[in-house]
Amino acid sequence: MKIAFLFYEGMTALDAVGPHEILSRLPEAEVFRVAKDAGPVRTDCGLILIADHPLSAVNQADILLIPGAGSATTLRDFPEVLDWIRSIHKTTTWTTSVCTGSLILGASGLLKGLRATSHWAALDRLKLWNAVPMEARIVEDGKVITAAGVSAGIDMALTLIAKIAGPQFAKSMQLGIEYDPQPPFDEGSPRKAEPVLYNALKSRMVAAFEKV
Amino acid sequence: MKIAFLFYEGMTALDAVGPHEILSRLPEAEVFRVAKDAGPVRTDCGLILIADHPLSAVNQADILLIPGAGSATTLRDFPEVLDWIRSIHKTTTWTTSVCTGSLILGASGLLKGLRATSHWAALDRLKLWNAVPMEARIVEDGKVITAAGVSAGIDMALTLIAKIAGPQFAKSMQLGIEYDPQPPFDEGSPRKAEPVLYNALKSRMVAAFEKV
Question: A154 vs B155: CB contact, 8 Å cut-off?
Fold first, then answer.
């Protein structure tokens, strides 16, 4: 089973690494970390990940995963990346995104008429790509699965491996990564957060998405 | 504020990248990704991260974070790494670990008499280093904070930034990474998992830790 992760400059590392920790442990997983060019990719917090393959080396995948970034849609300056996404999507069983990775799927023209989610601060922008924004942690429409912001990729990956390898496998993986979340606060979604925090953060994040 | 992440061959990427996503966004964070040698570090799922600095380039840190690995204690073959950990620990405000990273703290002699946690399958092994194993997601004893398996690093990092930058900052960060966990199953801890899954996974994982 070929699993392709798209890497790009400025991506949010956890968007990819959360699901990578889970999907790469699927039996017979063959993982391809792909970027415009193979080599180092600087993420938005300075951590550098290595892309093993350039776009041209990967022309098929069973699962495609697109991580997000505050600057996700700067990828529209790289039409060859969007071309690659469209081309791989034709071959996938599952095309997935985490956070604002859905804006990249949108910019690639793959969300037209589909229900999808994104980081809460970017959700409205899905309409720009004729997608139907859904306030949900994971949205599945046909073979396209989109996850909400950053940490939602972990929930999405567990959901996906349950479909692929069965719920027992997924539960064992959940236990393996001891995913029994106990955040010290319960303010991880707009509906739970204090309005003053929500409004301040939304202003900052929307400004970052302005380039979309 | 200097934050040092120890990277090493075979480490579990998410152990480090979860907290990195949070700690590196602290105001005035200066992040050092450190390994025995600077350069590429292959994690246990094949993803390669770059260590920016060799041990010799970093001699102080306000926060030290040690990620885990199935093979965590192969680090005991590298006494210079354990020496470095001991030396940095003398300078820290907080010394932290995720998953079996606590076994590395233990092997460095830093957990003697302290309460600590680890991945559930490795918890007993803390006794080898004269630590007091605690069945808890996060354990704080003095300036040492240990987290349980893999994903617990995210909860630990949020707890830590609340101490450092206040609860409002931590809540805003939680909202920023949309950390409103909704795992598809509720089997992420030994107490919640089906016994048959737990026993099978424990056998496999304990075998991996045998080299401790």
Answer: no
CA atoms of B69 and B21, how far apart (whole Å): 19
What does the alpha-carbon distance between residue A90 and residue A75 come to, in Å, rounded to a whole number? 20
How many residues does the structure list for chain B?
Answer: 212
Give the amino acid at A208. Answer: A
Cβ atoms of B155 and B140 closer than 8 Å: no
The domain segmentation of chain A, as residue ranges, is: 2-182
pLDDT in tens, A17-39: 999 999 999 999 999 999 999 99
pLDDT tens digits, residue range B181-209?
999 999 999 999 999 999 999 998 888 77
Give me the CATH code for the B2-183 domain, please.
Answer: 3.40.50.880
Which residue in the set A24, A47, A151 is minimally distant from B181, CB to CB?
A: A151
> Residue B103 is inside which H or E element, if any?
helix B101-107
* Integer angstrom CA distances of residue B183 from A124, A157, B200: 25, 10, 21
Task: Indicate which residues of A carry an active-site annotation.
Answer: 99
Token pair belonging to A139: 């949205």
Contact A21 B33 (CB under 8 A): no
Q: Is A42 helix (H, G, I), strand (E, B) or coil?
A: strand
Tell me what the mean pLDDT of segment A94-109 comes to.
96
What pLDDT sits at residue B70? Answer: 81
CA distance A83 to chain B (A): 25
User: 3-class DSSP state for residue A3?
Assistant: strand
Q: What would the pLDDT profile of B64-85 be if each residue is shown by its tens digit?
A: 999 999 877 677 778 999 999 9
Q: Which of A17, A155, A188 shows the shortest C-beta gap to B14?
A: A17
DSSP B7-70: --TT--HHHHHHHHHHHTTSTT-EEEEEESSSEEEE-TTS-EEEE-EEGGG----SEEEE---T
Alpha-carbon distance of A190 to A197, in angstroms, equals 9
Cα-flanking dihedrals φ and ψ of residue B19, to 5°? -60, -35
Pick the CATH number of A2-182 from 3.30.530.20, 3.40.50.880, 3.60.21.10, 3.40.309.10: 3.40.50.880
Residue A46 has pLDDT above 90, yes or no: yes
B3 strand-pairing partners: B31, B63
Amino acid identity at A18: G
**Inter-chain Cβ pairs, chain A and chain B, closer than 8 A:** 210
Of B155, B29, B176, B13, the residue nearest A69 (C-alpha) = B176
